[in-house]
Amino acid sequence: MENGPIIVQGDMTILVEVSHSLYAEVRDQISPFTELVKSPEHMHTYVISPLSLWNAASAGHKTQKIIDVLRKYSRYELPFNLVTEVQTLMDRYGKIRLVKENNEIILETDDSFLMSGILNNRNTKPYLGKKLSDTRVLLQPMSRGHLKMELTRIGFPAEDLAGYAEGDKLTFSIRDITLGNKPLKLRHYQKDSSQVFFAGGSEKGGSGIIVLPCGSGKTVVGMAAMEKCQCQTLILTTNVVATRQWVQELLDKTTLESDQVGEYNGSNKSIRPVTVATYQILTYRKRKTQEYPHFDLFQKNKWGLIIYDEVHLLPAPIFRLCADVQATRRLGLTATLIREDGKETDVFSLIGPKKFDIPWKILETQGWIAKADCTEIRVSLASSEKITYAMSEPRTQITIAASNSLKNKLVKELLITHKKDQILIIGQYIAQLEKLAKEISVPLITGSTPNNERVKLYKSFREGDMNILMVSKVGNFAIDLPDANVLIQISGTFGSRQEEAQRLGRLLRPKPNENTAHFYSIVTKETKEQVFAMNRQLFLTEQGYNYTIKEW
Q: To the nearest 10°, the Cα dihedral for 205, 209, 215, 220?
């Protein structure tokens, strides 16, 4: 395309011209098989990675369609090596398969040379058993997940067609009218995503990740998947508040009875046909040298489905569990697959590939999530702190910039501007939050706040008894505050794209009147925090959000 919106380069990167009239269109077209890595003002950089292509392949995207999209929008001829590399990587997904025969799992491929390499690879060899032919080999018991991880790491992800144990049956349905007397009908994307995951009960489905924006009803997607599976289910989530929200939603929106749904956390260890547990309790142990005493929860019932809420947050020890439960259907729910530790490939191998994704802006246009105005306000460092900042070590500089005392004055101005709104203030540093909370006389929730007190404060905010609430990073995930329409971020975790997306997500539940939310990120200019802010915004930029930059 003459003067096309993208420049495709031989190093597997794509430059996208932001000011081009086709920018939004091409962004949505390339997002299923690319990842955003840079988003300065005029030219955004995407990369085509092996993982992005394997996710695309598992979702049914074809190599030729990807090449056609690139050719359609590219300003120049596509580099020959890129076309070849895309074809090679896409072809690798499904080249190796796991199948089940006579209750044994077999690794198979049509390529005897490839099988020879796998049999002699020191990382895959320990998980393989008896050789059945030049293209087929038995797996060692309990090695399904571990082998899948190693195959992905060497660049040949296996398509897992070995199926699943059904688990104990549990008959229930989603209500047409909730117990709260509200009509309930699955939205089109909730229905589609649960169907794609279940795949009619075949081995083509049953494991994978649903990626949907915060506020779009991922919990309902989990319930829809449970309804299709009709089996006992273990749900893992981030904290006690989240477990109780899951329990409330299950009892309100399904025909499950209260004696069928249990909580498993630090204060309540009730195992029922549907059990909602926290990641924290599963990874708890008194000493590092001890085993994890709650890991046996995975064997307490014959679970037919495990749901991993906020799957991008999986703690490292849980990966070990995931590797051992590959015979159980696994559903991951998240707003973003980004992990700052780079373990996206392990999530891909052990939970499953991305099965369903929809751009945030599409759901915004359809009215399923709120519109959001994103504003970064850059504040000078307080004069009294400039010398200390200049003379400090890099790590200390980050803390000084994030805790800039002038931010408090700006927050007070924003509170006046939005005095009629429901406002969340969120930050990383407890001392900073405590000081501001005292200055403006607002309650603060941190990790040390008792769960009963958290529930009480969230309830007061939801019901409008208070219109300002402060939270530490415990507010990043799984809190249901549907009427919040302003969020003021005063500090964050370095350059975390994941955190930025989750924090905006606190505002995106649809609003009854003006369906618009306001997200303010306060940043100390000409410091490391300003550099981090650019990286934090990457994922949201990919989703079509623009940040207005203001100086104060």
A: 30
Total number of domains constituting the chain: 4
DSSP secondary structure of 286-339: SSTTS--TTTTHHHHS--SEEEEETGGG--HHHHHHHHH-TTSEEEEEES----
The predicted-structure confidence for 131-190, as pLDDT tens digits, reads as follows: 999 999 999 988 999 999 999 999 999 999 999 988 999 999 999 999 989 999 999 999
For residues 64 and 102, state if they share a domain.
Answer: no
DSSP string, 507-548: T-SPPSSS-EEEEEEEEETTSHHHHHHHHHTHHHHHTT--EE
Residue 306, both tokens? 């495990």
Whole-structure pTM over 0.70, yes or no? yes
**Which DSSP category does 500 fall into?**
H
CA distance 462 to 418: 17
Same domain, 72 and 144: no
Q: Which residues pair with 275 in a beta bridge?
A: 234, 262
13-17 and 35-38 strand pairing: unpaired
- Edge-first strand order for the sheet with 444-445 is 444-445, 468-471, 423-426, 486-489, 516-524, 371-379, 547-551
